[in-house]
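Design request, tokens follow.
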């Protein structure tokens, strides 16, 4: 206590907390809770659906937890092709967008996206949260269909398949689950901005 190393560590923690506060300022969070304590798997596919009529969703963070005492390294991927369906086992169609080590059993950990993912109005993007260890430790929700999925006025976290495979994109199991945690986003009004043309061009390219 009181050592130079302790001072440096505290300063680093304060710096990281300040960066996190800036990155998440003005965000809205939708929670998807762990209804059944102990349920977990290696990975979960889910779609984020933008139900806004005119605004883009900017996905900035995903929170997750583990139901295991062992280490759980979580990697988050975003689908380049749109929603998850028909792309679950093609690694070339996914980009890694965040990673973190999940600490503390049943404790939420935040994965900040290295680059926010933009979802146009009325569109959807698939995500895959995966743990490569042999322990199937990422906590999940109970089974839900689209009507009971976690949502707010702008976004739905639509459950999709789960995986008990330590290798990402290798195999999956049918069943509508998603990770237990949350998704944080910002609403982006691009109308009339210099970026609007670029975003529209990108959407047309994906379509």
């Amino acid at each position: 206590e009181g050592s130079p190393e302790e001072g440096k560590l505290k300063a680093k923690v304060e710096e990281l907390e300040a960066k996190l506060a800036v990155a998440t300022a003005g965000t809205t969070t939708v929670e998807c809770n762990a209804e059944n304590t102990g349920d977990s798997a290696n990975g979960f596919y889910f779609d984020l659906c933008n139900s806004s009529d005119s605004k883009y969703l900017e996905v900035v963070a995903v929170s997750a937890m583990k139901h295991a005492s062992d280490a759980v390294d979580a990697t988050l991927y975003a689908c380049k092709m749109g929603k998850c369906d028909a792309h679950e086992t093609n690694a070339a169609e996914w980009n890694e967008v965040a990673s973190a080590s999940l600490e503390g059993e049943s404790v939420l950990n935040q994965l900040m996206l290295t680059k926010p993912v933009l979802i146009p109005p009325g569109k959807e993007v698939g995500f895959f949260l995966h743990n490569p260890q042999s322990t199937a430790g990422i906590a999940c929700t109970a089974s839900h269909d689209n009507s009971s999925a976690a949502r707010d006025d702008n976004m739905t976290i639509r459950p999709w398949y789960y995986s008990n495979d330590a290798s990402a994109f290798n195999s999956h199991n049918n069943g509508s689950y998603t990770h237990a945690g949350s998704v944080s986003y910002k609403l982006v009004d691009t109308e009339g901005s210099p970026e609007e043309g670029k975003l529209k061009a990108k959407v047309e390219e994906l379509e």
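Comment from the thread starter after seeing the answer: thanks! The mean pLDDT is 85.
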